[in-house]
């Protein structure tokens, strides 16, 4: 069953057409990795999936709801779609624990005790239980990103979106974040991951989407896409990054 | 020396009134400023224009004219009757409110857009995002500028003497005209203002340290 369905999605910023005609879907428990050169529209694509960007044309159906419908309650939909950003975007004025408990308490009216327990459980899972009372400013980049993942998971989303989650990290911290993501994938989380980590895409991805110039150029299982790319542009890109 | 001692209780009364008007003026000014800032940033055009015009009018006219408008102008309407002190508090509130609105707006706009995105992505509404994520950070960041405005408003209260409020400056005038000791009395009045402002600055520093972003 598909959790996200994208039909003829188009997105322009003013005169600049960034997504030209994108159709694809993401199935339950699937890990889809999105790769492509800088400026090809990967982030914009991801941000259309939870309507962080207004959608210019086409349809995006999340969990059976068409989010391009102007009457849709987008806050409701977003609860089911977790998102992790390149620059973490933790709330600096709140402790690690409060970062995680805020949304469940305010949006889902979970009581404080239950929200705390869940948060500590998630922190344990990302290996940061002892940092519960720290503030984001006191954490390393890798730790911040793991907290950001825990924060998104606290809403119990059906799907998680990652936009280059390791691109802002020092090399020695990339591994710890990818490890958490691998674990998530193993547990059956549905994930869409924009990444420059080809090793991750190859190992964890069920499917890899190669984007260029606002189109999906090629979309295949990783072994096929990396081992046997068909399109010239895919070949050229992989030639540069591999 | 005796003369100064004798005048101190009178000046002290004035000092208290100055502090009282400043505190109330800033309190209401903050509320006016917060509402105006939110209107100013609102996507609803009429609210936005209302805020812009309010800010422009206050910034584009002298405080004394605003004060005369409120005290003499509004009071000339049959259905309004403001005591000098209430007119004074209203004047300070409105004047500070417009400036505080701009301070808060700048504070809100200085917060990284990623904060809003992270909050909205978690399912928070725009009002919740403003309340729990943006405003707490913006208010911390604008605190030094707010203290600055508080100092300006405090000094502005000395102009309230012209509508007959017995605040510190007005008391100074009264004592001077009774004693002819202009040099000494104005020195004492100046020191009193200085101490008030010093305390205000210290309070600001304390709050800033207390709520520093870690
Ligand atoms: N808010 C915006 N306003 C105007 N143009 C934008 C905006 N966001 C993105 N763009 C443009 O859209 C194009 C695609 O951007 P996008 O961020 O989606 O690319 P990307 O594939 O994620 O690149 P990168 O690998 O560098 O992150 C770029 O040309 C970019 O300049
Ligand atoms: Mg990007």
From TrEMBL, chain A:
Alphabetized, the UniProt keywords read: ATP-binding, Nucleotide-binding, Transport
Q: Name one GO molecular function term.
A: ATP binding
Source taxon at top rank: Bacteria
SMART domains referenced in this protein's UniProt entry, alphabetically: AAA
**Pfam families membership:** ABC_tran
The record's InterPro entries line, in alphabetical order, gives: AAA+_ATPase, ABC_ATPase_HisP-typ, ABC_transporter-like_ATP-bd, ABC_transporter-like_CS, MetN_ABC_transporter-like, P-loop_NTPase
Domain ABC transporter per the UniProt entry, residue ranges = 4-238
Q: What is this protein called?
A: Amino acid ABC transporter ATP-binding protein
UniProtKB/TrEMBL annotation, chain B:
- Please give an example of a GO cellular component term from this record: ATP-binding cassette (ABC) transporter complex
Q: Which Pfam family, just one, is annotated for this protein?
A: BPD_transp_1
Per UniProt, subcellular location reads as: Cell membrane
Molecular functions (GO terms): transmembrane transporter activity
Q: What superkingdom heads the lineage?
A: Bacteria
Q: Provide the membrane topology annotation.
A: Multi-pass membrane protein
Q: Which GO terms describe its biological process?
A: amino acid transport
InterPro entries listed in its UniProt record: AA_ABC_transptr_permease_3TM, ArtM/GltK/GlnP/TcyL/YhdX-like, MetI-like, MetI-like_sf
Q: Which SUPFAM superfamilies match?
A: MetI-like (SSF161098)
- Supply the Gene3D superfamilies for this chain: MetI-like (1.10.3720.10)
List, alphabetically, the CDD domains matched: TM_PBP2 (cd06261)
Boundaries of each ABC transmembrane type-1 domain copy?
15-204
**Keywords linked to the UniProt accession:** Amino-acid transport, Cell membrane, Membrane, Transmembrane, Transmembrane helix, Transport
The residues that cross the membrane are 20-39, 51-74, 185-207
* Family statement: Belongs to the binding-protein-dependent transport system permease family. HisMQ subfamily.
> What is the protein named?
Amino acid ABC transporter permease
Source organism per UniProt: Exobacillus caeni
């Amino acid at each position: 069953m598909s959790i996200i369905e994208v039909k003829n999605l188009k997105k322009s910023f003013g005169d600049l057409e960034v997504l030209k005609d994108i159709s694809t879907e993401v199935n339950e428990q699937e890990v889809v990795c999105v790769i492509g050169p800088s400026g090809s529209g990967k982030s914009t694509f991801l941000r259309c999936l939870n309507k962080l960007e207004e959608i210019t044309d086409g349809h995006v159906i999340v969990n059976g709801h068409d989010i391009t419908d102007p009457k849709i309650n987008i806050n409701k939909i977003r609860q089911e779609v977790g998102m992790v950003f390149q620059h973490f975007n933790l709330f600096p004025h709140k402790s690690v624990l409060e970062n995680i408990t805020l949304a469940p308490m305010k949006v889902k009216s979970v009581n404080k005790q239950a929200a705390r327990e869940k948060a500590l459980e998630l922190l344990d899972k990302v290996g940061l239980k002892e940092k519960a009372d720290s503030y984001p400013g006191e954490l390393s980049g890798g730790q911040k990103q793991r907290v950001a993942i825990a924060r998104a998971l606290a809403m119990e989303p059906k799907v998680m979106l990652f936009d280059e989650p390791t691109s802002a990290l020092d090399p020695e911290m990339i591994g710890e974040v990818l490890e958490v993501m691998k674990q998530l994938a193993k547990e059956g989380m549905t994930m869409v991951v924009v990444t420059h980590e080809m090793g991750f895409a190859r190992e964890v991805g069920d499917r890899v989407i190669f984007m260029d110039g606002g189109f999906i150029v090629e979309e295949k299982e990783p072994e096929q896409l990396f081992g046997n790319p068909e399109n010239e542009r895919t070949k050229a890109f992989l030639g540069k990054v591999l | 020396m005796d003369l100064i001692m004798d005048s101190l209780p009178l000046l002290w009364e004035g000092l208290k009134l100055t502090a009282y008007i400043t505190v109330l003026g800033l309190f209401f000014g903050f509320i006016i400023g917060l509402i105006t800032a939110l209107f100013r940033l609102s996507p609803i055009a009429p609210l936005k224009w209302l805020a812009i015009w309010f800010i422009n009018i206050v910034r584009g006219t002298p405080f004394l004219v605003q004060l005369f408008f409120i005290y003499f102008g509004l009071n000339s309407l049959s259905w309004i009757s403001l005591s000098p002190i209430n007119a004074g508090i209203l004047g300070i509130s409105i004047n500070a409110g417009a400036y505080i609105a701009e301070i808060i707006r700048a504070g809100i706009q200085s917060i990284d857009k990623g904060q809003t995105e992270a909050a909205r992505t978690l399912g928070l509404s725009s009002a919740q995002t403003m309340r729990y994520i943006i405003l707490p950070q913006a208010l911390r960041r604008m605190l030094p500028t707010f203290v600055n405005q508080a100092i300006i408003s405090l000094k502005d209260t000395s102009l309230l003497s012209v509508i007959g409020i017995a605040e510190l400056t007005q008391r100074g005038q009264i004592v001077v005209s009774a004693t002819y000791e202009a040099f000494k009395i104005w020195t004492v009045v100046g020191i009193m203002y200085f101490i008030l402002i010093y305390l205000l600055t210290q309070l600001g520093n304390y709050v800033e340290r207390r709520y520093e972003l870690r």
